[in-house]
């Protein structure tokens, strides 16, 4: 490193060079900030700033006590804000409508039962509805709810508010997982979404739990052309 | 609220009830912590804990000086870790391989040119390659790079390392955007990915920039069956 040593960008460039060249190999601890500052001839705060930036990019893992090390599996990290569908549509200036297709207590298929760890004959609340934007189908919501575990769900008819919105407002956040994939529209899905059978559909599947108990599980099928955007 | 007022869960339940009933309407400031603590008969720290939880779920926006308010657009917030494709595959215990399909300096199509804000006749580096898992096609990478803005890209041949991995290790993170969608395999894409034409493909499109200048733009087409997982 040359005379520009006192800028944090120069320190970052040098750190990246060492990681890229494997001079600092994946999983290896990296030197203490004070040692690096001395070696590179800059302030410790400058090293700290540079390492923080590199850590945010996912190339370095910082651990409070154990120090920092080169990430074994560097990642790009994005934050994904998942809005209530009504608000996503209204934010675009479009008129929102929700149309309830069905609501019933049903014995779920095996895959859903496994997710809820429910008893073989136990019934769950099954709600299907269509989210519309400016009168056109936007997304088909197919949701299962453990009405025992979600107070109020059993007495809500979901004709005035979608389960999507009701649950965001009703269930305190605890944990969940989410998966994104692509699927083709079955004839029934195509009819609901007003698209040709076989059209490519963006799919999100979410499960929300509290105290390790699954509260709800949903499959959202978006009409063709939908894109989910976020910032890296 | 009853005698359970001194638990933060009870305070959270009461806050959620007020938001759900629109007693506290979207966009409206919520009372100061001290006032709420007095009203609800609990410690201020308890109110703070409850509000922090509700804010993490995206229903309340906390602003350092302006106080807290009910979110206009409540969201569920997820963190998305986007690994280097090689590492994603190796983490699953599968053998990774990358096969370079083409590498050329080309005048990009209008949509790519607009993204880079490049001059009409300016050439960009265009790299296409196939990521393989256990010998099977995993994802087709179609990438454009501004070699003027990314030192080293112009002299890297990408036969030994994919652009995906090279860029994560080479480009300091600054900003980017990402979009997820679904597409159907064109005949050429189907041949590259070893699937039938018309099969549904999960697509991610990313652009990475620094100082408002686009450095690289990529379209990743994943073989049928791919799912992107994360935690909420």
Automatic annotation (TrEMBL), chains A, B:
InterPro entries noted in UniProt: Bact_HTH_transcr_reg, Chorismate_lyase_/UTRA_dom_sf, Tscrpt_reg_HTH_GntR, UTRA, WH-like_DNA-bd_sf, WH_DNA-bd_sf
Q: Does the keyword DNA-binding apply?
A: yes
Which GO MF term does the entry hold, naming one? Answer: DNA binding
For the HTH gntR-type domain, which residue ranges apply?
A: 5-73
Q: Which domain of life is it from?
A: Bacteria
Q: Could you list this entry's UniProt keywords, alphabetically sorted.
A: DNA-binding, Transcription, Transcription regulation
Q: Where is the signal peptide?
A: none
The UniProt entry, under SUPFAM superfamilies, shows: Chorismate lyase-like (SSF64288), Winged helix' DNA-binding domain (SSF46785)
Q: Does the keyword Transcription apply?
A: yes
Extract the PROSITE patterns matched here.
Answer: HTH_GNTR
| Pfam families, sorted | GntR (PF00392), UTRA (PF07702)
Under PANTHER family, the record lists: MANNOSYL-D-GLYCERATE TRANSPORT/METABOLISM SYSTEM REPRESSOR MNGR-RELATED, TRANSCRIPTIONAL REGULATOR PHNF-RELATED
Q: What is this protein called?
A: GntR family transcriptional regulator
Specify the species. Seohaeicola zhoushanensis
């Amino acid at each position: 490193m040359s005379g520009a040593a006192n800028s944090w960008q120069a320190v970052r460039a040098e750190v990246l060079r060492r990681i890229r060249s494997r001079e600092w190999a994946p999983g290896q601890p990296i030197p203490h900030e004070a040692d690096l500052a001395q070696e590179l001839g800059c302030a410790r705060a400058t090293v700290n700033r540079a390492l923080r930036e590199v850590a945010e990019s996912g190339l370095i893992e910082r651990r409070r006590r154990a120090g920092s090390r080169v990430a074994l599996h560097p990642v790009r990290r994005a934050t994904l804000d998942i809005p209530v569908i009504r608000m996503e549509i209204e934010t675009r200036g479009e008129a929102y409508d929700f149309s309830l297709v069905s609501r019933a207590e049903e014995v779920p298929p095996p895959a859903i039962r496994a997710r809820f760890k429910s008893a073989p004959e136990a019934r769950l609340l099954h709600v299907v509805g269509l989210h519309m934007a400016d009168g056109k189908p936007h997304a088909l919501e197919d949701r299962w709810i453990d009405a025992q575990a979600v107070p109020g769900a059993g007495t809500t008819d979901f004709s005035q508010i979608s389960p999507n919105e009701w649950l965001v407002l009703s269930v305190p956040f605890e944990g969940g997982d989410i998966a994104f994939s692509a699927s083709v529209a079955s004839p029934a899905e195509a009819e609901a979404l007003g698209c040709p059978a076989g059209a490519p559909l963006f799919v999100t599947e979410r499960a929300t739990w509290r105290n390790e108990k699954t509260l709800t599980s949903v499959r959202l099928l978006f009409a063709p052309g939908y894109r989910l955007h976020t910032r890296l």
